[in-house]
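Schema walk-through. Below, the input block comes first and the output block second. Nothing else is stored per chain. Lengths vary across the set, and this one has 253 residues.
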Amino acid sequence: MLIIPAIDLRQGRCVRLTQGQRTDAKIYGDDPVEVARSFESQGAAMLHVVNLDGAFDEGDSLNRKVILQIIRAVGIPLQVGGGLRSARAVERLIEAGASRVVVGTLAVESPEALGNLVRRFGSRIAVGIDARDGSVKTHGWERGENLSAIELARRVALVNVERIIYTDIARDGMLNGVNVEQTCTVAHASGLKVTASGGVSSLKDIERLGKAGSACGVDSVIVGRAIYEECFTLGDALQSAESSSVKSNFDNC
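--- output ---
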C-alpha cells in the first residue's frame, strides 16, 4: 500500500478543506515547497498536489507557479490535479515534469479528449472520481452529475485509463474513516488500479484498506489532514503500510 501525502494549494498556501467546501479552509503552511521537501525527507515516494483555485475556476496563476517550484524542488514523482479541463492544460503540466496528471471534470464532459490524452500519455493520465452518496460531482465538487461513480469508472476503463483516484466527498477532511467498501466496489467494477482518498484518521484505516485492497485492486491511499493534525506521522503510516503490527506514537484523532 503506497502512502501518498497530499498538498492542497489555496492562494499559494498549503490548506485542507472540509468536504471540499471552498469557504472552509484550514491553513497548514505558507510554504508548500518546504512541506513537499519535508514529506520527501520523511520517506514519501510520491506527492499528491491539488490546485484548489483551479478546481474552483478562480485565478490560479500563483498555485501554478508553486506547483512548478515543487516539481523542481523534490526528486520524487508528483501527481497533480485540480482544474485541468483542457488537453493543453494537461500537456503543460506533463511538459513541466508532473509524473501523473489527474483529470475529473474533463473525463465526464470530454470523453473523447480523455481518450486522446490516454493514447498520448498512457499511465501518466489518471481519472479522479469524486462522489457524494455514490453520485459524481465535478467543477470543484460543486456541480452534480446524473452519473454514478460506478458508471464513470466503467466508462473510463473503456478508453484504457489505468488508474482512478476515488474520493468520498462526505469523508474528505472529516477524519472519520475511509469508505473502504465503496472504494473496493469502484475497483471491482472497473478492473482498474485505484487510489483511495478521503477520511483517513488513524493507522487502523490504513491497515483496513491494505487488507481489503490486496483483494480488490486498491493499491494506494492519499493522506492529508491526519498527518497535518498529527494523528500519526508519515513515518508511522509508511511503517503501518508494511506491517499491521506497527502502532502510532500519537493518539489517533
